[in-house]
Amino acid sequence: MSNAKAPLPNNPEGIDQDQFLTVLSREQALARFEAALFPRPVPAESQLLADALGRALAEDIVAPIDVPPFDRSNVDGFAVRSADLAMAGEATPVRLMLNDEVIACGTAPVRPVLSGTATSIATGGPVPRGADAIVMVEHTQPAGPRAIEIRRAASPGQFVSYAGSDIARGEALLRAGTVIGSREIGMLAACGISQVLVARAPRVAVISTGDELVQPGKPLRPAAIYDTNGAIVTAAVSENGGEAAFLGAVADDEEQLEAAMRKALAANDMLVLSGGTSKGAGDLSHRIIARLGKPGIIAHGVALKPGKPLCLAVCDGKPVVILPGFPTSAMFTFHDMIVPVLRRMAGLPPRSDARVNAKVPVRIASELGRTEFVMVSLVEGDSGLIAYPSGKGSGAITSFAQADGFLKIDALADQMPAGTEAEVTLFTPHVRVPDLVIVGSHCTGLDLVTAPLAHAGLVVRSIAVGSLGGLAAAKRGECDFAPIHLFDEKSDSYNTPYLADGLELVPGWRRMQGIVFRKRDRRFDGRSAQAAVRAALDDPACIMVNRNQGAGTRILIDRLLGDIRPDGYWNQPRSHNAVAAAVAQHRADWGMTIAPVAQAAGLGFIPFAEEHYDFALVTARKQRPAVQAFLKALASDEGRAALAGAGFRPA
């Protein structure tokens, strides 16, 4: 891999599009992309105030009138001459006669305030001729049907807002480039401005590519996946000042895809595709770009993780972006590399992302030579924020949606050591630390118990790291509970032997672990777990699916296998659902999961051991309100009934 500067592709026809161009650093790729696009004029259009929200002003706005346009009262009371009240006091009240009019909002005064008189006036009413102060109604007393007494002096200008005191005619109200929010709309409306000239939102066409894509709402055929990138990218374009048009998914047909890309470019200012940037046989998008306009591809291959296959191009002045197909890769590269360009085209300022410092509790391995972005979930530790990395990979959409932010590992580093204080860029302006933190082994029953807490407004953060990882987090004081299901052969018991000082066991529920297989498989049907495993081991064609190290299920599997390592042993997914999916989809013939998961997948199930899914509670956190709410939900009749209904046996 080289970070040397590569020439811009002036001759698209001569580019070998079947290979990555020279892999560029993030900074090089972004600089070249922007250099090929800018400077450029930002088109403007007139918009009604209601439609201008979030847009950038294209010109300075000068106030056409004074605001307020007249002297007005700030309180309910009486318009007076301050000189009449110069000697007023508790012992020397001043009596004023009331004029025969009441000045309300929107009512122009008719009668002047002469010496010795006052006029009733409402908040916002125009101050009448002759008056120079307002006395609050609370500071007066009736003195007959048409008079009042005042026992305190009034200074000139008291409770009066003068014309132009808020905004003066001819004053620069807003500058070009200002992003219009609710406050700006209020200022414009106060000046009587109903339309403004704003930067036109760039029209951005979004196309997903791939034979495997199915649009949400339609049946999912075998080996197909729902198109998530189309919806995500379309929303992200709108969030960052673009006018997005999702044109659907196009199959891996070069002629069809080229026609769709040409049509999209002709009608829009920018084209964003997802998929088709890697070197699979069906990846066509990057080859088509060379025929769409000059200069063509600017960067194809960026030293980012996730996001290396990113392709940046400019075709006759219009940006064309091909994002990686995996959702997390697509979103990281879009926000990091495309958003700056999109916002600049929309006349908007760069994003101002909030950042916090947090400690990373575990070592994060990284690939030397690529800047890596790692999504993290934030929890409150004993001495500050803790940033737990997400391990779901670049294909996981939930890792992006559920994370609080991300941290950056420099291209020159091959790891981030445990205990590192790192800067976390937040996905939202503020981070809300969760009320309850659960770190350890995940179970669908956990969602049932925490549902009442979430409905009550508590933020529950559950991080799946396995039983042993959860215990380690609990010992470090990084969570409230660590769900565990660890069998100790020496004591022939679950979980209690693994507790350390400062932890106590809270019984959870029992769940049946067993062998999962496809129904009517004679190697397993009607056998005990031990006999089924022996039959599987006797068949060289029989493939297993394992579980990850640190999982309680892995301990049970190893008890069954002893020292034998059959085909599939090193296939180690991190969840029960993944095991069931591997068997159901014929990628494996057997594995170990829990009964509710096997039943939901329509698979055969041989019971092996009822394991104890319990909670290691950090004693020092026991009295926290959210912890008490969890304990109450766990022990409630409703919680126990929900667990039983899902196939678990409450302890």
Automatic annotation (TrEMBL):
Catalytic activity: adenylyl-molybdopterin + molybdate = Mo-molybdopterin + AMP + H(+)
Keyword Metal-binding: yes
E.C. number: 2.10.1.1
Gene Ontology cellular component terms for the protein in this record: cytoplasm
Cofactors that this protein relies on: Mg(2+)
Limits of the MoaB/Mog domain: 205-344
Top-level taxonomic group: Bacteria
InterPro entries: MoaB/Mog-like_dom_sf, MoaB/Mog_dom, MoCF_biosynth_CS, MoeA-like, MoeA_C_domain_IV, MoeA_C_domain_IV_sf, MoeA_linker/N, MoeA_linker/N_sf
Keyword Magnesium: yes
One protein family per Pfam: MoCF_biosynth
Pathway: Cofactor biosynthesis; molybdopterin biosynthesis
Main enzyme class: transferase
Transmembrane spans: none
Keywords annotated in UniProt: Magnesium, Metal-binding, Molybdenum, Molybdenum cofactor biosynthesis, Transferase
Gene Ontology BP annotations: Mo-molybdopterin cofactor biosynthetic process
GO MF terms, alphabetically ordered: metal ion binding; molybdopterin molybdotransferase activity
Family as reported in the entry's similarity comment: Belongs to the MoeA family.
Protein's job: Catalyzes the insertion of molybdate into adenylated molybdopterin with the concomitant release of AMP.
Protein name: Molybdopterin molybdenumtransferase
Provenance organism: Bradyrhizobium sediminis
